[in-house]
Structures are given as C-alpha cells and as structure tokens.
Amino acid sequence: MITEKDIANILHEHLDREKYFVVKIKVAPGNKIFLAVDNYTHITLDECAQINQMLVPLLDAIDPDYELEVSSPGLTQPFEVIEQYRKYKNTEVEVLLLSGQKKVGILGDTFENGFNLLIENKIKEEGSKKKIKIIETQFFEFKDVKYTRRKIKF
Questions:
Q1: Which domains does the chain have, with CATH numbers?
Q2: What pLDDT, in 10s, does the model give residues 20-50?
Q3: How far apart are CA 80 and CA 3, in angstroms?
Q4: What residues pair up with 55 in beta bridges, in sequence order?
Q5: How far apart are the first and last CA of the chain?
Q6: Distance from chain centroid for Cα 10
C-alpha cells in the first residue's frame, strides 16, 4: 500500500519546488490517491498531467495497484498551506474565525504564524453626515482561523 509519506518523499525528491507546491495529499482505501498541486502563477491541466506522468513509474515501484488523481486545489476551496496565502497576496479573501466571525478583505503579507488582512470600513467623520472609507490592517494568527478562501465575484 502506498502511504501519504511515500508520496511526500517522492514529491520532495522529484517535484520542482521552486515552481510548484503541494497543497494536499490524500490516500483513501483501495489506494485511491488524490494530489492537489499549485504554483505561484496559474497551474494548467497540462502541468497536472506532467506531474501525474512523473509520478506513475515512481508509484509503480512501490505498489502497481493504485488510482491517481493530480489536480489543482480548486478555485473556491479553503487554503491548506501557507504558500497559498503568499500566492494570493493582494486578492480579496473571506476569513472565518474560530469565533464564528467572518471577515472580508484584501490579503496582505503572510508570516509564519499568520497574515494581515486589509479591511475597508466606513466611518462617520465628526461634524459630517457623510461616511468615509478607511482601510484598516488586521493581523490574524493561523491558530484562530477556521478557513480562508478566495472571494469569487461573478
């Protein structure tokens, strides 16, 4: 049986880590392998197929009986790894905190323990009837976040 650790080791040795990063490795019963890979620009179907082809002989050497799916992480899926936060800097995201509070803003810098979110607020200036927009930067620690995902507008 092929394990997630086996796949991680193979990817560590053979995947161009300056170009690609692994988002998720899942091995389900029956050796059904799901691998989500991304890059810092826009991963293509051809690139996923190339990664699949690179993996086949290496996985065959461990166990020839498996099913392999290599995919991009998905447009609306929550972020799984810090590299996704870095990739989507300056993009509008939705953050759900463990407290249940939702925040929407522009993703700022990412650090080892969390990230900045630029949030637009409207405040009323003293003596004015009109509200003005201000941008506040809030820092969120990863440990306080249930999920972060891209906000898609149609």
A1: 4-71 (3.30.300), 82-150 (2.30.30.100)
A2: 999 999 999 999 999 999 999 989 999 999 9
A3: 19
A4: none
A5: 43
A6: 21
